[in-house]
## 1
Amino acid sequence: MAIIERPTDTPALAGAGAAVTPSSSYGNFRRPVQATGWKSWAFTVDHKKIGIMYGVVAMVFFFVGGIEALLIRAQLAQPNGTILSADKYNQMFTMHATTMVFLFVMPMAAAFANYMMPLQIGARDVAFPRLNALSLWLFVFGGIFINSSWILGGAADGGWFMYAPNSSVPFSPTNGVDFWTLGLLITGVASQVGAINLIVTALNMRAPGMKLMRMPIFTWMALVVQFLLLFSIPVITVALFLLMFQRNFGANFFSVEAGADPLLWQHLFWLFGHPEVYILVLPSFGIISEVLPTFSRKPLFGYPFVVFSGAAIGFVGFGVWAHHMFAAGLGPISVAVFSVATMAIAVPTGVKIINWTLTMWGGKLWFTTAMLFAIGLIVQFTIGGLSGVTHAVAPSDTQQTDTYYIVAHFHYVIFGGAVLGLFAGIYYWWPKVFGKMLSEKIGRWNFWLMIIGMNMTFGPMHILGLQGQPRRMYIWTGDRAGDGFFDLAFWNLVASIGSLVLGIGAFLFLVNVWVSRKNPPAPADPWDARSLEWLTTNPPKEHNFDRIPTVHTLDEFFHRKYEDVGEGDQHDYKQVATGAEVIELEEKYADAHIHLPSPSYWPMVLAISLPIIGYGVIFNTLLIVAGAAIAVLALFGWALEPPTADESEFDPPAPDGDQPSKELAVSV
Amino acid sequence: MFTTGSKFLVGAAVLATLSAIAYGVTQDGIMGTVGLGSAAVALWFLAGLNLYTRDNNYWADEIASIEQAPAAVPAPANSVWPFAFAFGAAVLAVGLVTYQAVFIIGVVLLLVSGAEWTAEAWAQSASADTGHNANVRDRIANPLEFPLAAAIGIGVVVYAFSRVMLFLSKTNTVIAFAVLGSIVIALAFFFAYRPRVPSKAAAVVIGVGALGLIAGGAAAGLSGEREIHPHETTSGLNEEGVDICTSPDEFEADLKASQSVSATAAVAATITLGSDGELSYDLNGPSAPGAVGITLPRSNPNNIIFQNRSGEPRRLSASLGTMVAEGSTNEVPVLMCTTLVDDGGAQNMTMRIDLPSITTPGGYSFFVPGVESAELNLVVP
Amino acid sequence: MNRRVRIAAAVGLAALVAGCAEDAPQDMFQPAGPNAQSIYDLSVPVFIIAGVIGVIVMVFIAIIVVKFRDRGQAIPDQVHGKPTLEIILTIIPALILIGVAIPTVGTIMALNDTSDTECVINVTGQQWWWEIDYPTQSGCGSGIDQPIITSGQMVIPIGTPVLVRGTSRDVIHSWWIPRLNGKRDMVPGRVHTNRIEADEPGIYAGQCTEFCGLSHANMRMEVIAMTPEDFEAWKLNQTKPYESPAEGTLAAKGEQTFISQCARCHQVNGLEDADGAPIVSRPDLSVYSGAAPNLTHLMTRNTFAGAAYNLLTPECRPKVWNAPSETVGAEYLKGVTPDCLNSVELREWLRNAPAKKPMYADPTKLEATDGLTRGMPNLALSEDQIDELVAYLLERH
């Protein structure tokens, strides 16, 4: 944790006599230190504001991707649908997956990790606040960059897996794939930078007494995810670079006529793509591992097992990628090895489900909306996991792959496993983040409509797939629909209606936010929670904790509220303090000097240079020069800027004395 | 209005801009304009910075500091850059009369030491506090120094290592790689498990290793690369008016050819010349004795592996009808062949045939020059 | 179980059973040959195991939700877990999975063994149709002396293990006849194999299942399995010499139109120009993949344009497709008769192919492929020319 003290006011001089070191060292720009207004958000380095912005932008993309999904289902509701052309349909499903994976679930998980990780480990911010801002803006600009393709000649049309050689220029002559490639490179930088940042934060900035095995489980899962990102993003970056050079600079990495093997792309893509699945679901596993104990009033059952199974999933997740390629012609030995490895990964996943149910067993269950979403996750993810086992069986998978059965499977995993968990987190932490409760009544509607909608949408897809309807087809015909109970026409219609229900359910979340905006302030500890992020006000102050807490146990906050008054093996927990009282105590012993980093322009300037270079690659070489110039400018601006702004830049200047002053910070 | 430093930069920027325009107007090709334009942008940027910071007498604005500052400012510390700059100039001069490489080294040395000197001098005027000034220098120069140094370091290692690898024979490269890899891992483990080992020792080991690598690379680079066989293409081997494909003899092209098979994942057929002088073929699947010949799909690259088991060096040729040669009206035969394959060897031939075999009376066929009995019909539907 | 539940269950089961009789033609739970059967035999127990585990988990959760909901009981004991229980519950799923893994590996190996096949058929995917060619060989019944080339519909003899050797001319496609075997990607530059065998005569539908661009949804194929006798008849018909239409008929005009408009890309074997030289199509000069369907025996097939459209009218189609296995071969061998020709769709296709099936077919907009089209362009034929062509094509038996 590189904290750089700024030069003291009376420096020790090399020579004799008194010299004065200038207090503001090299930055010639006035820092954007406003505490309110748009600048306080745009140039902030506060992990909480960054987390909120991550969440808001991710939610916007969630609804963008949702609309794309609704259009897809509308097209498929009837045979020979005419709502979308073949070209638009192909763009639609490509962008639906890209948006949901890269622009919703990943950044939403990043939002939670950003906001909650420092709070859960008792830190004042992440290790590198400006890098954190850089991650956010790279993600935002990368997302806008990809989506700008809609109005600049059409979006990518090769599917999110973008198999070569279908992604080469002769087969995809528009610029869509270029936008996709460059956009994902940009968001990839965001993920990579964020991963390094959060790993350093979790490993180095824990509060005194918080050993690794006392770390809240969400932080643990977020940490595992950051390691997955650290090792998998470089792989996709390599693949995207090859594709970019193939398309824009005449390289031949995937040109069969030049002797290339198209399977190279598949290996690279899935070597990233499979860990990616765990990148998507593990944060949600972490979230519900917080939610379930809180609302069961019990610690997480088998905390070390959950931690190690998470790590095991992360590790084995790198050894199963070829199960996406069972039909690709790998040869029987590879197929057998990857088939068995895929079955092996089901074990730690099963351990998690067992632990969650046993956490609830013997508890005192409180069915809040967050808890409903968490239980919903267990049920839905179990279905997705079990259908996953059916295609770990490679011969069986050669029938199922690329049919709607797979679509059903991964939506139960990603929607049932990841998205429901994210919603559980949103409902659980909403009072923490915004200081207001969301309506539980609308929340229930939100939950049940989403659950019914998702089962209506994705449940029938099991039937569609097993009846032989392949994915990624812009139309299906009555000729091959059959009739009777397994009539494809009927189940396609059900799925389309279900998607509408799901859409309404998701929309109710927005309604809930709108309706709840004028609710009275939330109580200090609305859920009788267990972990450290609740040991501060709602919403937390800018400096998170008035006093850096000292941690003695797992579930520290719970144990400050409840004491075991039983004797010997007889446990009897009695409440000794309310959450509000515990927090008040912290305020009473507030630390005197609290150092926070100052806001900065440079992360945003640096972030904006990359899309400009991207447009340059696609449209005009001169834009590359301009983008690179901006990047160099930003890098130097960043490097020359001291970590904290000068007192005089604050308006009004921060008062002297024992007041907490915003002076110091962390270096990068 | 213009400070001393900015005059120079503005002048250079104007010059670069004018040359960019002049180059763009008078010369073909965009790269020169882009390069000069980039230089102009960079110089204008620097000029702007310099103007804004008033030659970095910015701190002079802080009247209080000036008033309180001591009369004597600490003397500048020792610096290696004037020496390096001068040395660079000398190297450049030597390079002018000897080799281009020496000249380039001189230019690089001049640029690097000049830049470092400038940064250092600039930083030393920032304040009276030398520690603070060192910090200023680092903040200005490190963002350039670290990536450039890393790139050069990696480049040197990669280049030196690749020279060594290209010098050794094919088998020895494997051994060298394994030995070197083991040594590196062993040392890494050693240092990881013995944190007490003084860092100087580690530095010495790394330094010796780096020196050894560079020395090895230089030596290997000077002694040249091992002989590397190119993968000879299989069609259009025509030497001095003799079509190789119809001859059993050895030609220059045959000597250069590698006999390793590259495309094993996509073999359309394996054709074997047996010791009985007959061609037999093997498709993936049931063999087809009694069939009229081998069938290959049209307009599709087919990889044919030719195995020679005849005891003599032989080539496989394919006769694919005739075509009208460009610029004449003569029909010439279309032939394709492997290079001469030693007994027991194999070679790949990739064929894409766009016309069906019915276009040629008698159809297409495979044959082996010098072996009368070796003939195999080729059917392209 | 109360009465209403029982009735609902009975109705559900009845619907299920009734439905099975007329399932979609690509139903993967109706294997029609030993390869698909071995996959089916392997996957059904896995489905059952997965289903049982799923039910157990759900019931367990339901019990917990009912039993432990907050009724004002005291704060529960803060147990952190029971390692023995954890380990047991880890080992059980591991054992189940080992039980699944062993037969899986066996089946993988068995399905990849192609040494027992008796007939080789090449399939080549391109945007957006399959070319199917029968190389000369001694297998496939009485052997094949003259290569047969067709598209969209593969004819095989029953009871014969057939080796499908596949590749692609442009992007990756996937060969999948669900009732005969699992799918296999056909990758350009590689030759992949897939063993199929049908027990009963019938028409087995399939679909390209690797996303291959614009008209991926319109890239289908069928395997027609027939008795060895029927198969010999089919082979004989495919290799019979070309007959020009009778002088003065509409079809004879159609032949000239075909030569001037279609023969650039589409091969009709035996077609000769005025000098008696064979007319050889050069699709590689107009189409990016370098191939176009061979139309010599178009009317022996009953679908066209990547098996996406029927050559049979909606009235005639069921007579072939739903024929019992004893007669399906004979029905298929009849080909397309004039009264059964789906001339509506064939005419639409000839009138403007890219409007019927999305394709990249406008040479003026195809810089990336040097003007080579992907798929069939709009030939701007007159209605008269279309009439002539339909008459000509109708004789391609």
Note: The domain at 48-518 of chain A is CATH 1.20.210.10 (Cytochrome C Oxidase; Chain A).
## 2
Amino acid sequence: MAALRPAGDYDESYIRDMSFLRRPWMNWFTWGVVIIIFLLPFLEIWGLISSANAGYARYTWWMNILNRIAYTIVALQGLNILTGLTGQISLGQAAFMLVGGYISALAMTHWGLPIVITIPLAAIGTGLIGLLFGLPSLRVKGFYLAMATLAAQFIIPWLSRNLWKDYLGGTNGSIVAPVPTIFGYEFSGSTNMFIISFVTLVITSVLFNNMIRTKLGRAFVSVRDNDLAAELLGVNLFSYKLKAFYLAAAFAGIAGALRAHTERGIGTEFNYTLDISVLFLGMLVIGGMGTNLGPFLGAIFVILLDEGAIILGETIAHAFPDQAGALQTSFRPIVFGVTLIIFLIFEPRGLAHRWYLFKAAWRLRPFAR
Amino acid sequence: MNWQLVPQKFIDGTLQGGVLALIAIGIVLIYRSSEIFNFAQGHMLMVGAYLTWMFAQIIQNFTDSKGIVLTIAVILAIISAIILGFLIERFALRPMTGQPLLSIILMTLGLSQLFEGLISLGFGVEPLQGFPTVFSSADSFKIPIAPRADGTPIVFLNQLTIPYTRLAAFVVALIACIALILYFRYTDTGLSMRATSENHELARSVGIRVPRVFGLSWAIAGIIATLGGILLASISGVSTSLALVALAAFPAILLGGLESFAGAMLGGVLIGLAQALVQASKLIEVRNSFDIAPYVLLLVVLVFIPEGLFGEKRIERI
């Protein structure tokens, strides 16, 4: 955010002008946070925390949440490319996650490939499916395109139940995703999977943040802001839209592969419905569309809120045991719906915008409001 | 194709399509007056069905006549739907005026999440029993059709069945559709809605109160949704999956063209037919495809005739 830089803060070299982490302390801080988070699962692996400890249940709960946040951010980054940067509404991100999960699980089961290969494979394969459903963007945009992706959200899960029943699980609606192993170490459970998810997240974040400021990212933004002007400037609309669809689906595929190996299964049984796609769009808006920080803030905020709603529901369910079933499930959509509505009305630019305002106010204290 | 099933499925599809057409008209109505795609229409429909059920449960304590119970419950549900429509417009969508398409679509999606949560909080997640219906599901016209001379039946079981509930739903939907079309063509408020959809500023300058028109169109959409909810619930019972059934109305309006009521009706019937006719197939895969048939049709429409059958050709091509 060059625009919000304090007066007198100049770039002294081209490298600094181009860098995201412009100050040494930013560099140290970012790497410190990344390494600390990366080391969290090793607490259990190295035996510093085990089931004998008092806080073990809470630790595994948090690792589960962190893992969910990590792969959700990857999916959101994909959606951010398509919806935030290129301005094409997608209601099908969850279906693309389903495709990625299947590709990774099948490649690992039948070909015995390691996860280091199946995740890129899932990205490439899902991207190709995404291209297929991006084809209508050749002719239509806006609401019509949203309908095309809605069609994807219904058709893909249906195909997974009705085609190649021996491989895709048929009417069971799910197949087993094997435990990934790297050098003989088995990554079973959320705590171990978090290592893979987090490394993937770091890689996709670097890719995403750099993609934004290359020719590709700028072309995406120009398509979003004014597609006719973009075309006059020499941006091939169709090709860039398809690239956006490809990238969005590829990121979703990675996220789906991570989720499949965490939950040890993939299929329509594992809740890849329209509600999840809507949840992703909501997260993106709450976080801030088209910003680097948006996916991070949105995923963390909404997932923590979601867990809060579950805890609230279960607390109330203890008080009214005869209504337990309804109480446990109904607070999640209510809390999400109300949050989304409040954000759309009062802060449509999302938490990322709030964060920039807060940073500016902090710098200008004590004069800021 | 299993030709013996086709005539029966044709009837089923047309009747089911009538209800879809009514839901589609609710969406087209809001689009025409305020250019908002209401993804919450299915959930408004679900809310209407649940409210009717609730009122019916209350009224059943006072009277035994099913007709009276249903009438009063429907009237009360429609009144609450009108209030709900006004509330949605005032507190959710008026602040969104001038926001981009995505924000408005997301607002309706957020509303639908909210309704889903509130309904499951208030009524539980299990399907509800005892929706008041005038006819039982077994009551039906049976049209016998004689088999061919060699004894092979022309239609399955040698008869066509037209259940009263489905026929009544179709007739109510048809009457509502025609009433709406007439309303838009011949009344002042209907005309002012059409004027508003063309151009907000010009409509204001000739003295139309645009916010009131928006509120009114949401109220009417609420009535339509409630009617659709009651009709669907009388066929398949009250449950939260009613909202998903209504999503098939979106392919219907794209097929018919976004601006056209007649198109929405035809689209609804065609989608209903598509859903029913695939069930007459001999392949189990094709038979199972009835819940995605509308969306396959939707993709075909999007690629080949994006403006729909009756839509205006002002869609932004790229």
Note: Chain A has two domains: 67-272, 275-369.
